[in-house]
């Protein structure tokens, strides 16, 4: 009943060849069918019967002139081909296997052995591809026998491991035979079922034969017996091509719902013209039919044909007119199966080989069958643990197979852009990770530009103070002949105002995209201009102090009082700072650079100082001039009020020092374009402090109190 379609395919192929005059003319092919009962002794017995005289079992003796064996087409169990080959190869009888079989190591046996079934290695690769396609890496395995299990572990397990597939369990199928104790078999089924259902693997490979389907179909009943319910979506069953969904007579009414969603490799097949009609025309009432048809009919339709020992009025008598189309698929397939198609091809292969031998003409052999893969819309999950998504990496769990692992979030600055990544890797310098740590995003290029609010604000402040400086300079030039302008060293005042004006304007070099020219001029122009401004303040203060010291009787300081000393002070201090800047530009000048590391998500375009030491030497010299000016101005604070510009200079130096002392820690603690903004603010604040503290009182007198801008007011005690 299980393999009745195989018999029909065999008979149909023989019938076609015998009726075809172009193949083996004047030769009629016949068949002899034997049942193995899945037992080795029945296989050997059937093989020896083929080699003896019909009706007489005398091994190695045959005197028939007809019924000569030209080939044997062996069954769909792996051990059948191996057992038969041991005998048939001695008599040089070719053997064709339409089912799976173990590898034939003997060269003599292999010479007379042809396997029509797909190679086992190809099936294994097909199963591996199927598992990888659905990302099933945590699976269970059931093999048919200890020999198969041992062979699988030795030859096939490494293939799965290399692809990252692990086995939660590997169990042997309980051996089913008519000689086995029923209780032992049942206990084997129960233990196997419990192992499968308790496993965390949701995908199970059943690497067995067609007869193992009977064991497989016992599971729904075991689930009821053991109170372990088997749901349709509990497990995904994956089977090789040799397993067909057949059933024994007592299993025909057992449900197949639990197999819903099972995946099976299939032998390539196609519909044979006329085979379906041939099947439908089979009637046990026909005189041409063999006894196998009547046996199948009784088992399939659960009826009996009348005979001498049976009451003809029985309700379960076979009429012979029953329709095969009413039978379920588990009893007989409505379309031809892969194994039936292989049998059909095997018969034609034998016929063509015999034709070629008789006519010395070769025929083109059939192409090898290719594995087919079945795709499904819903993909079940079967892994030891959920895969690590992108943004995470795998970390091994001690004491577990490599398929079992934990997932670790990628650390800051690193990503992983695929699932189950072994490790995270950093982005390139011009990119940064996104929040999910699975993608690198290009960094934004940034610098202090004229278009952004901060740049606009600083530019506006610079323009305002530059205008104020120019206006003050204009006021002093317009009133250059007034006593208050003359009394405070008019030439140094002009130089100081011009230096302050340039100090405000030089901050514009710090705004905009850095280039080579801007980088060279930024710090050097700032250092030289501020040195000129501070040296002017120093010169004004020294001249005032010397002037009062020269008024004392017998003082020798009179020869030092004059414009020449003031010019010398300004020129010498400016030349020193100019020399420092020249050395800086000569040995390690500032240059434009891209800072990709300070800011995580930005590339900062900036000017590198080149030599940080020279940068701080420039600042140090400015600090020296500031301290010296402050000290001299502090000493001159008690001079008569009419000449006392020193107290305003003292206050301006306090403001100047406060700004630049605060500048150093603030500059070192800021990053990116805000470092530039801090330096601009310091330049503007210090220059504005000098402008406001020194010139505000004078402008007040010149513009608002001209009555105080008289010689009499300056000479008053």
What is the compact description of this entry?
With about 725 residues, the protein is an alpha/beta fold. It contains 22 helices and 17 strands.
Notes on the structure:
The chain is of the alpha/beta class and 717 residues long. It folds into four domains: 2-117 and 297-303 and 332-351, Rossmann fold (3-Layer(aba) Sandwich); 120-264, Response regulator (Rossmann fold); 392-442; 453-638 and 695-713, no CATH class. The chain is built from 22 helices and 17 strands. The chain has helices at residues 4-19, 40-50, 78-88, 107-111, 120-133, 146-155, 157-162, 182-198, 212-216, 219-225, 275-280, 291-301, 338-359, 453-478, 483-487, 490-506, 516-550, 563-587, 612-635, 646-669, 673-704, 711-715; strands at 72-74, 95-97, 113-115, 138-143, 166-172, 203-207, 236-239, 263-264, 392-396, 405-409, 414-415, 425-426, 431-433, 440-442, 444-446, 591-595, 602-608. The strands form six sheets. It has a five-stranded parallel beta sheet with strand order 5-4-6-7-8. Helix 16 (490-506) packs antiparallel against helix 17 (516-550), helix 16 (490-506) runs antiparallel to helix 21 (673-704) and helix 18 (563-587) runs antiparallel to helix 19 (612-635). It is rod-shaped, with a radius of gyration of 52 Å. The model is unreliable at 361-376 (pLDDT under 50).
